[in-house]
Design goal:
Structural class: alpha/beta
Distance between the termini: 40 Å
Largest sheet: 7 strands, parallel
Number of helices: 11
Strand content: 5-15%
CATH class of one domain: Alpha Beta
Shape: globular
Strand order of the largest sheet: 3-2-1-4-5-6-11
Helix content: 25-40%
Length: about 325
């Protein structure tokens, strides 16, 4: 199958590109930045169209020339950049999504998979936090009031659902819990959800890192390979009944569990974690996504708990000869 992957060279898109290629599909990468560092070992095996996803005509050409059947839309700018320039943020994250949907309609593309975010949700109440731990399902209100980024994700979801209603174009939106993994450092990705990356980076460089408290704080965190797996499933699964899916670990992991996973892979890691809870130590909060819909309709289950995730992370650092650029 010919599948367009916007942002297919990025920190999440690269794994989608890789997994589709491994499955025998033809991923056509549409990316504005010709940075092949995360796909250096397969660069000669993939088709890459360098272009701006905001260029509607360029997207149409790519769909036509490569006979695209489905689209995985990952290209976006991140929260800080969207808040810094709301007009640009809304255009690139929401208006461009509508252009992707329209291009898909015009060119008879069968399905669009959109990478949404927990940011699309309304503020999360106390009954979802540590004391009750009620999993957050897809019926939770999606009315974000605290970020332009969240507003763009919610708007994109609504437009995708309406394109499916009006034109029969299958639309799948995946809301992710905080993501961590190779390449997700500030120069590429912006300072977002980087705590887990900082821990691994400090361990690799042998630099001490200490948390006086917070070791028992639970988080739902998603490794980038699991993110990619969910996108691929969203793209290839038999036509799902619903459009919106929550993607996370399926359970929560404490900060101590994550550090223990790092130490299992890097025994010399000089990291200390104190006991107790500390809201705000990491991204997100002490809540967990309900992933049962994704399991039932897409076949999604997280495959990488912290220890296995860090081991995979180290494998790719070595294989791709990636430079460690510490997050700030």
């Amino acid at each position: 199958m010919n599948i367009l992957v916007t942002g297919g060279l990025g920190v999440n898109g690269c794994w989608v590109t890789r997994q589709l290629l491994e499955m025998g599909h033809n991923p056509v990468v549409f990316d504005i930045r010709p940075d092949f560092s995360l796909v250096s070992d397969i660069a000669s095996d993939i088709n890459v169209v360098q272009g701006d996803v905001a260029d509607y005509a360029a997207v149409l050409r790519a769909l036509k020339e490569h006979r695209i059947e489905r689209i995985c839309h990952l290209a976006a700018i991140y929260p800080d950049a969207a808040d810094a320039n709301p007009v640009r943020g809304f255009h690139l994250n929401a208006s461009v999504t509508v252009q992707i949907l329209e291009a898909a309609r015009v060119m008879d593309v069968d399905r669009v998979v959109f990478t949404s975010s927990l940011g699309a949700l309304s503020p999360i109440g106390e009954d979802y936090l540590a004391s009750e731990r009620k999993p957050i399902n897809e019926d939770h209100h999606a009315y974000p009031t605290n970020s332009v980024y969240g507003a763009t994700k919610a708007a994109s979801e609504l437009m995708g659902i309406n394109y499916e209603r009006l034109y029969g174009l299958k639309f799948v939106a995946l809301r992710f819990a905080p993501i961590y993994g190779p390449g997700k450092h500030a120069p590429r990705h912006g300072n977002i959800n980087v705590l887990w990356n900082r821990i691994v980076e400090h361990a690799l460089m042998g630099e001490p890192m200490k948390f006086d408290t917070g070791g028992d704080q639970p988080y739902d965190m998603t490794y980038s390979q699991d993110v990619a797996h969910s996108v691929v499933l969203g793209c290839l699964a038999p036509r799902p009944e619903h459009s919106v899916f929550h993607i996370g670990s399926g359970r929560s992991h404490t900060l101590r569990e994550f550090v223990d996973g790092v130490k299992a892979a890097i025994p010399s890691a000089p990291i200390e974690v104190g006991p107790g809870f500390a809201e705000g130590v990491g991204p997100g909060g002490a809540w967990i996504f309900d992933t049962s819909r994704a399991k039932a309709e897409l076949g999604y289950e997280a495959q990488y708990p912290p220890k296995e995730a860090v081991q995979d992370w180290l494998h790719w650092l070595e294989r791709l000869e990636l430079e460690i650029i510490p997050s700030k």
